[in-house]
Specification:
heterodimer; A: mainly alpha; MetI-like fold; 13 helices; B: 324 residues; mainly alpha; 2 domains; 68% helix; globular; transmembrane (chain B); transmembrane helix (chain B); cell membrane (chain B); Multiple sugar transport system permease protein (chain B)
Amino acid sequence: MRETRGFKIYRAVVLFVLGLFVLIPLYVMATSSLKPLKDVQGAFTWWPSNLTLAPFVDMWKTVPLARYFVNSTIVSVVATVFSVAIAILAAFAVSRFRFRGRTVFTTTVLSTQMFPGVLFLLPLFLIFVNINNSIGVQLVGTRLGLIITYLTFSLPFSIWMLAGYFDSIPRELDEAALVDGCGPMGALGRVVLPAARPGVIAVAIYSFMTAWGEVLFASVMTTEANRTLSVGLRQYSTQTNVYWNQIMAAALVVSIPVVIGFLLAQRHFVAGVTAGAVK
Amino acid sequence: MSVATQDAPAAAEPAKRKRAPEHRPGLSRWLPYLLLAPAVLLELLIHIIPMLVGIWMSFVKLTKFFIANWSAAPWAGLGNYKVAIDFDNAVGEGLLKSFGVTIAFSLITVAASWILGMAAAVALQPTFRGRSIVRTLFLVPYALPAYAGILTWNFMLQRDTGFVNHVLVDNLGLTSNRPFWLIGGNALTSLIVVATWKLWTFAFLTLMAGLQSIPRDLYEAASVDGAGNIRQWRNITLPSLRPVNLVLVLVLFLWTFSDFNTPYVLFGTAQPPAGDLITFHIYNASFLTWNFGTGAAMSVLLLIFLMIVTGIYLFVTGRRSRRA
């Protein structure tokens, strides 16, 4: 690819157009979160009539945002921890052992990632209702139900990505550890995992993003007690008022942790996402 | 399997141990299964069993009276399917329309996302100052929680207070009366724009990584031969990216076709017919009427459709690569 004048013009146009496309919603979100309510109830203005931080204060009072925040945090963190741990074990098995059923496992697990969520939403909901009726473990309307559900959402991709990472770590390292008297699990803990740390971080961020942003199951499996942010943010629209400035402030606040985490790990993430496709 | 026959001391036969580094044969045979057990159990509980239950549900009359006591639900045979695909009555007609809308939505969104992703990936192929900043910026829509981005678009698409109408009507004066974007015929356009906004950046990310694996000498050789940038793109870039594109397009299609977040967050429960995507249609058919049997039948039909499309896609693309 040569950087001719034509190419430079092309690049400038593409970057300008796509830059606007990406930036405008971010700009609207940021400026609207600094507007007084009357600004977002009238015609759109490019800049707040007077800058105010009030939406960032009021948003905690209009709806129980703090509770949604706590729910989302607990659900996402616990789901991530378990999902990553389970994915590490499974990926280690797939990468380091040849055993009967290995291909069946990897293809089945990966194909579940492709099925639309609505397919198992209804049955899962009913299974949860009936588990509650028969053995008394409440899964609908509790964080536990969400945690179990969410951790399986990121599992297939995490296993696939980690197995790829583990494959890239030379087996001679494991073997050296085995010779030194470690068991296979020792080799995993002392050799493979430290070498695969970027992959583990990327998978953790992916799992967290999946749980933090999930809408479909949250809309069915949550009640007021375990409501997460993805559904809770809708509560700002009341019969009489839509507090768009507070919605934008809340959207901004709930986005910042995941966006920063993702952007910090983007290099590992990109490598992991594309490793399979490029091969 | 080599695992079980390995009796010799580990260090004595390093050559045989190349494939799997184990040392206690008895444990090693079971270890992989132990390691997989948690993942398998959870996949069974949350994905596989519910899917089988879903298929069973599609054959019974599972209305709200039987939700807590589902074993008592009467058998319906193919009744739910008949209702779902009887295009003369309201339920079947609604499903058919929703299916058509979803096809249009998916094809346009996937095409737009791929074109934008490719355009940006090619533009960022040669290094320049600020390249990594641009790349990071382009990834933000993907990193943002889906509902946060879509809520912002919801605000922007409001008729009287939104950004879009302010620019189109007040600033540019393109039309005199403010169009509705979230109800009526424009709803599909809104869905496509918002879904593309979120999705193109994934295409960009994947294609960008694919471009990095193309050897530079190919381009240099082509330049020596006098091939311009457009010909280089057609003759080098596109063929080299073929394996990436095959997976990418399929994944984009499967995701878009079952997109729930965009219509749900954009429209809430007031779903306009022009934006009635299939996942949301099934969701409403089930949870507004509490008639899970019909909803399950629709889900199974959706699954069958996606499997057929995937199968044909893999077959056709596979055959074409063999010929090439």
